[in-house]
Design goal:
Blueprint lengths: L1 H15 L13 E7 L21 E6 L5 E5 L4 E5 L5 E5 L21 E6 L8 E7 L4 E8 L2 E8 L21 E6 L6 E5 L4 E5 L12 E5 L23 E4 L12 E5 L4 E5 L5 E5 L26 E6 L5 E5 L4 E5 L5 E5 L15 E2 L10 E4 L6 E5 L3 E7 L154 E2 L43 E2 L25 E4 L5 E3 L3 E9 L3 E9 L2 E10 L3 E10 L2 E9 L13 E6 L1
Length: 714
Amino acid sequence: MIRGTVLRALLAAAVAGAPLALATPATASYTLSPFIGNGTAGSTGDGGLIQMATINGPTGLVRLPDGSLLIVEASGHRVRRVASDLAVSTFFGIGTNTSTGDGGTPAAATINGPRDIALAPGGTASTYTLYVSEFTGNRVRKVAVVSGVGTVSAVAGTGIAGFSGDGGAANAAQVTSPFGLSVDQVTGDLYIADQGNNRIRKVTATAGVITGASTISTVVGTGTASSTGDGAAATSATINAPVSVLATAVSGDASTTGTLMVSDSSGHRLRRVDSSGNITTFAGTGTACSTGTALCGDYGPATAAQIRTPTGVISDGAGGYYFGDQSDNRIRRISSTGIITTVIGNGNGCSGLDRCGDWGPAETATINAPWDLVLAPDNTTIYVADATSRVRVRTLDPPLVGPAGPQGPTGPTGSPGATGATGPTGATGATGPQGAQGAQGAQGAAGPTGPQGPLGPTGAKGAAGPQGATGPQGPAGAQGSAGATGAAGPAGPAGPQGPTGATGSQGPAGPQGVAGATGPDGAAGAQGPAGPQGAAGTQGATGPQGATGPQGQVGAQGAAGVAGAVGVTGQDGADGADGAQGAAGADGAQGPAGPAGADGLAGTDGANGAAGVQGESGDPFPLLVSLPGDNVVVYQQAHVILRFFVSGPAEVRVTVLQGSRTVRRVSRTFKGVGRRSIDLGSIRRGSYRIQLRGARGATVSVDSGKLTVRARKT
């Protein structure tokens, strides 16, 4: 129990990216442990403890800038998230195997058979970009997260399997069963393992940004399923069902741009593409290892080893690589010197509910068909997507060092040693320092007087004498004339504000206009005046249900009565319009159902009376359905026709909205059952909402499978 507690603390630290304070022993040892999932396929446990959560077919892993781990569920049609505090949630998808929701949030969108996920460079904890491959949906989707809010879009593929589009926009090109993804850390270019087309495709970024309009091209493979062409251009070589691709460019080193590592899965090799675009074999001979328990070339050169169906490949942070040797049930490492070894798994598979060697040495544990792996920042902790619907983690064991023992007793004093032999003659000493300087000699006798020199030149003019003293002050001058008038002084401060005038009384409300006549059913009755406010009456007992009258004209609206008990609501007539509305009192009793006609105009409320019986909707065309997604995008001016299914006689209205503005409104009456259409005419380019409404009593049957929009260019 103590060991489990300690390991859970280590796992939380590794997810958060914190370095584990462990001393590496001379020969490091590693333990394999469960991280999430119990071997039962499912997508449960959101918001709960990680130990109780299940996952469904994990195939892809990536770490976010905040330390969270994202897990792609191929069978669950979701991307799950394990936060740095080990909280579990769903990040992308609702579990439906469709591909919808572009333009919305990832939590509301659907994904179809996702396989891998990749993170673009330069992200932060709240703003980053992800790419997700849809193996079954034949697309690659993008999730752009800004300030914690994600938006989904399509960047590659049309959703229809095939091969087309090189040199054009990526979202107009076809891909087939896209699997592995990777992003160049220098340029932001996206690489796609287009497994069904036996190619590696590249979507070129502009200033590090990829959209659906970015250009797509083939950088590895010709489309033929084989493993040939080493030593030549990768575009002329062949690869066989690639599952994974790793862009090996080093951030900040432009010379490494375009270098790739490719899992040539059915070719049983790892292939490498250098910066010149040439391809070679990096590991494997092309022959699968005959048995999972054999060495398969371990401890020798990777190019001479046997591997079987390689999957995910990642850098080890020290110039080498880890990769999934799927059919051999192992994780293997190729060092920077090219030597291959096994780091997780003994070659045997494991069933979903077994312990599979958990809590024991990683090299002797069993794993089952690993798909992908990711390395924590400490460069020792590895997370592995195990096909038994689990993610497992390899961690470095702490050193087994016991406490220091007590100090031993002092030993006895030893006997004096023997006299040593005479040493050899010493070397000649260094030259001594220079002697001090001698004393100064006495002054010599004076020499004889020399001859007189020639007459010197005339001296320079003397300097000016000092300034004389100041003279006495003169007499005062005459008085000057008066100065000009000074400029006006600044304005004085504003006086206090006068009191606010009294509020004028409110003018009387204008009379309400008379409602226009309705359609063929008959003119609306005039509205009666509002009644005085009455006291709130007690609630009356529910009366019997009124009989349905025949369809007739709209009855005139009665004057508002005093507030009374709540009246009985009459039942709507079969297929007929509502009867005339009773006088709208403040909670006044509703009159009996009159002959069935169109709804009467809503009466005005009594002054401050209690709420009356809720009348029928004033809108004769209540909303029946809004298009799935509530959005239709017209990419260029087009003639738009709305098609739908009518299951009985109906009066139908279609409203086209752009924001809150009504662009088009069309009404039609249909008598029979069957598919119907309404011509909306020419609609300009833009994003619209289209609402289909039916008159009360209409029997329009509409669902997302029967409501379609067709458009042709105008």
